[in-house]
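ESCALATION

Customer reports they have been waiting on this structure for their group meeting. Please prioritize. Original submission:
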Amino acid sequence: MRLAPLLLLTAAFGLAAVEPAEPTASAIAKLVAKGGSEKPDWWDQVTLNYPKTLDLTCAPRKDIGWDPQIKAGVWMWDVINPNPKRWREGTKFWHFVLTNAKQNKLPEAEKTATMSLGHCYGDLLQDWPRALYWYQQAEKAYGRGDDRTIDMAHAQWRLGARTLALQTVKPLTQDGTRHGGLIKLHADLGSYDTAYRLAQARQTAGEDIGWFMTGYTAQLEGKWDKALAAFKKAAAADEKRSGRDWKQTVARATAAVQAIELFEKLDLTRIKDGVYKDSSTGYVAPITVAVTVAANRITAVKVVDHKEKQYYAALDEVPAKILAKQHVKDVDATMGATITSEAIVYAAAKALSQGQR
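Update from on-call: job pushed to the front of the queue and completed.
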């Protein structure tokens, strides 16, 4: 069973790791209620900072293009998301928008702020109790949606409640997300049979993503021959039977094939000490990773060049997973930044292969 990343335990002093009991639904509910009722500990140290030209009504404006000085959502996308030092500022801003919307009866702004707060606390700050609180508020106010349900389950998993997460997504019987988010979550949770079934069904609507997520699932399960075969099919997917991201998915699959062929050959005992750099296909452009090896161990993994904007926690989280595993195998992607995560793993594999004797 795959445990939530925050709850992984390692063996120590010759003793086997012990799996902690999953928190109950009531325990999770208490955490969520507490998070929703209390300010974060950083709140008073963060100054509200945003362009005063922003339209706080968040009303659709067809007369204005992609303008981060007027459209709050565009400002968040272009300015805040790519800048980790401002993530707390962005979160505080959406709280301000929500308060203003309630006071002035601005329904569009209230809806936008409620949904944005889930994104801020989850994708950006990894504050899972507060993220789950805002996902639930959005569902209560605006109804169910597949992406929101997946986000809720992901937050529950990150809080250690795998069984609860599986119950949350159980009603979703097909994956209609753009990049196979439901399949990914089931694979991350170790629910491989369901992930394969969903991926196979997806092949009829988009064979590129369907085959790619089959490969992703097999990769996490450790079935490398199956993963390689699936990624090769994704790389050869017919554009007419694929989705709008066909070109990007083919590039991802091609990179996956190259990386898996390296995975089996990598042996840290045969890699000379040194720093090795290489790149792989990201969401926007190639991502370059530097991997440091010393005394047959990976001692550092760092993204040294990229042009990604919506990478969320991937730039820190994925290198940390590679360090912990001491390999590039079985590294699951950061939710919301799957393509960036894959690129980091594949670039690290290529980099390590340079030093192998």
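Sent to customer with the following note: Residues 87-104 form the longest helix (18 residues).
Escalation resolved.
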